[in-house]
Amino acid sequence: MDKKKEAIHIVIDPTSGIPYYRQIILQIEMAIADGRLTVGRQLPTVRSLAVDLQVNPNTVVRAYNELEIRGLVNTQHGTGTFISDKRVEMSDVDREQILAQLVRGFVSQSASYGFTVHDIIKYLTDYREEGAL
Amino acid sequence: MDKKKEAIHIVIDPTSGIPYYRQIILQIEMAIADGRLTVGRQLPTVRSLAVDLQVNPNTVVRAYNELEIRGLVNTQHGTGTFISDKRVEMSDVDREQILAQLVRGFVSQSASYGFTVHDIIKYLTDYREEGAL
Amino acid sequence: MDKKKEAIHIVIDPTSGIPYYRQIILQIEMAIADGRLTVGRQLPTVRSLAVDLQVNPNTVVRAYNELEIRGLVNTQHGTGTFISDKRVEMSDVDREQILAQLVRGFVSQSASYGFTVHDIIKYLTDYREEGAL
Amino acid sequence: MDKKKEAIHIVIDPTSGIPYYRQIILQIEMAIADGRLTVGRQLPTVRSLAVDLQVNPNTVVRAYNELEIRGLVNTQHGTGTFISDKRVEMSDVDREQILAQLVRGFVSQSASYGFTVHDIIKYLTDYREEGAL
DNA sequence: GTGGTCTAGACCACA
DNA sequence: GTGGTCTAGACCACT
Is residue B11 less than 8 Å (CB to CB) from chain A? Predict the structure, then answer.
């Protein structure tokens, strides 16, 4: 049993073509934007996240650095990295663009297996009705 | 309304950061997935598409090449490039299992960005109604 | 006897009529097939192999690329290219069926050239004993 | 029920990378060399072979042309194409080279599915013992 | 340092 | 006419 409930669960998709550091940034941004990560919350340490995601620590460093440059997080040397009070400006359009990119990648991947958009919608609808999520 | 019926209309966005050849692949895969490109249809010739998109012919070659390796298209030397059958030996049960696996992975990935199954279905449905892209 | 143990030694034959990039692919595949290259091993870097073979780096890139698309190797950007696992989800029964299908096709193909199963086995056995190529 | 028993059965492998016309030439050469095709025998007509192999008639024409240039066959306008009396010089080395090329392609293909040379030899040996050919 | 992308242009092979 | 291969060289991205 873990001591604390994780506020954010980052998943790296090696097949997406999106650079790892970019995937990390995007997911943290989105978590801030929709309230899963609130001001003052501590992010995982570079090392623990690197182990968790099985990526090079430098990759995490790069992601955190970019977030810091944008002012979304503060790094306190020797203590950790924390969500700053700067609000993330994420319009519905921005959100939709990210979703669009994800969906496009998925649809293409599915096409490689011979599935159509129709197949996907059908399966997803059934999937939802069965109460999974 | 265009005068002639286009089998596929590819657009390159130089600002997206996605490599040109990958944009071509994605759009062809999507066209296959939503039925705009059907089995046996001929793709534009390498040279004509290169002129059309204003990219180097080699860039188109590279895209077609990857599609060929993946088995999505067949190349007939000296003749052209065609959408292949690809609905290989696969039982419906196998198909469903593969689709299930793909969908589960995608839903989990989307969830880490804060998107729900509902968001995905909505986007896909809109996407279909708008006639792609 | 060479001083250092080579994981793989690739030789390009410019007179064979087989494209360079394909010769590279074939030899790497064969090295995987007979166990000289095992999972996780790093391939030579693009540049070093290009120098070694006296071909253009792009030619090596192309070979590695196709191997990557087929799932035989994994590329880690900025790090190198490695033999991937690839023993995907496949039961022994499935494996045997696929092998059977491959072998049947090959035997039939060989027969049309006048070669018998005996010829093939003999060649393969000799091939193994000579330590490949 | 066919009227005559075919002396030669040509098989085109679209995945081998060997040009179709080349595959036809090789297989006819081998058939002449090992006595399956004897002097005076008629080859299939261009059209019938093209239909049979599902290739462009021009491809067959090209193969027959090259065989004619080498003096292996005679074309009698309006009558057909016949094996000439020129012996095919095909040394064991030549034969082995052709076999080598075929086997290399097959081993590589098998590697893509994760099979080793050992797997192949084992399966082939069993295959032969079961009396199949 | 690694690999990735793209261009320009030459030359070859197949139908 | 189609696609295929290769080179040379520039510039970018990731570790």
Answer: no
In chain D, the DSSP E strands lie at 73-76, 80-83
**What pLDDT is attached to residue B6?**
56
Instruction: Give the closest-approach CA distance of C47 to chain D in angstroms.
Output: 24
- Whether the CB of A85 is below 8 Å from some CB of chain B: the reply is no
Encode burial over C83-109: b for 16+ CB neighbours within 10 A, e otherwise: bbebeeeeeeeeeeeebeebbeebbeb
pLDDT reported for residue C48: 94
State whether C121 and D128 contact (CB < 8 Å): yes
Cβ-nearest to C33 among D117, D127, D132:
D117
Structural domain boundaries of chain C?
A: 3-83, 92-129
Per-residue confidence band for C56, with pLDDT thresholds at 50, 70 and 90: very high
Q: Which residue is nearest to nucleotide E1 (CA to C1')?
A: C78
Judge residue D13's burial from the number of C-beta atoms within 10 Å of its C-beta, 0-12 exposed, 13-18 middle, 19 or more buried: middle
pLDDT, average across residues D116-127: 87
d(CA B53, CA B130): 23
Structural domain A3-83, CATH architecture: Orthogonal Bundle (1.10)
CB-defined contacts C:D, below 8 A: 121
Residue A76 near residue A30, CB atoms below 8 Å: no
**pLDDT by residue (tens digit) across B63-84?**
999 999 988 999 988 889 999 8
C66 touches D: beta carbon within 8 Å: no
Q: What is the pLDDT of residue D107?
A: 87
